[in-house]
Design goal:
disordered N terminus, 404 residues, two-stranded antiparallel sheet, mainly alpha, globular, 64% helix, single chain
Amino acid sequence: MQVSSGGLALTMASTANRRLSPDLRRRIGVAGLVSLCVLVGLTLLEVVPSYGVIPARERGERWQDHPSFLVGDCIYYRATLLSLLEDGDLDVKNNLARKQYWPAANVSLGQDGAWYPKHPVLMSVVAAPLYWLAGDEGLLAFNLLQLTALAACLWFGARRHASEEISIAVVLWFAFGTMLRPAAYNFSPDVFSTLLVCLGFLAVLSRSPLVSGVLFGLALCAKLPNMVFFPVAALALAVQRDWRGLLRFGLGAAVPLLALLALNHHMFGSPWVTPYDRVLVFQGGEWVLEPSHRTFFGVPFWTGLWEQLTDRKLGLLVACPPIVLAPLGLYLLARRFPVEALLLGGACLAQLAIFAKYEQWRASSYGPRFLMTVVAVGAWLAAPALEGLLSFVRSRSTGAGHAP
């Protein structure tokens, strides 16, 4: 008796569904509904009203008409994608010239004289199919889809230690009341990077260290400063004496890390030289290398941290008001689940620490984008904090009602 491929797929899906616990099936279903609400809401509230095309005359002779969501670095991520699809290489010189986009400070000089992307190429590779199908609108759709996936991650993280109702409220609050909302009208590498990091954290918490290692390796390929999360995840495994898990974590991370080192060697002749070490700028009528971006971390630590938290336009407290609940959530989590508190609190502190000294942190159109992982993890911590506060209020109300 022969079974069609479609029937076999349905049978396998049905078997997998039966193996899931009823609670997990419900969580997946609610995550899907919440994510759908986020997708529809961000599309109607942020994307549709904002969509437009910037005429070239408003940007000068080096520009062409382009959708207004392609701002800042977005154009250069698209140039990488175009080079891959049209030329089959990573030399973006001709792609930028054809589109008349000024390459200074956005390309890196390769060992063979090629102009390689300054920015990581992983998001461009992943988004290429949607661009091939729908052009620039495909990139906007990609951005909405990755934000939708991030909303699902926020749900699963929040639901670990809060009720269903509280978790839904927290996800919607963060999706529509923080910097995540304006990030919807973008082609955002920060959302892409944060999504991979959050998936990696969920894999650690689900005791899947091999998968977590792969995801953190990909996260590093998406954004080099994500290296700060490796010791945090490794420490969370080590304090549990999960030495086999730690080994699997390392093996999982090795594959994407080796691929990244190989790409660096191909472009710049050394696995340890990154695109941010070879950035081209135009000075005195000629192209020269600017100092490595490793030298851009010179702001005094406490000054930089305070500014990134409290700046009136781009500060974390302005861009993400519910983050004020995170310290309380971390305290409540540490009382019952110290390893999880170590993982999430350590991740927030690590990202705050590395970017506190960064000179160019203001280069953003929608808040402190370099701290987006802090925002996402903040939702996981805000959920138990809000749950605890509401429980406290209920207990006080009940006590007052029974008072003589």
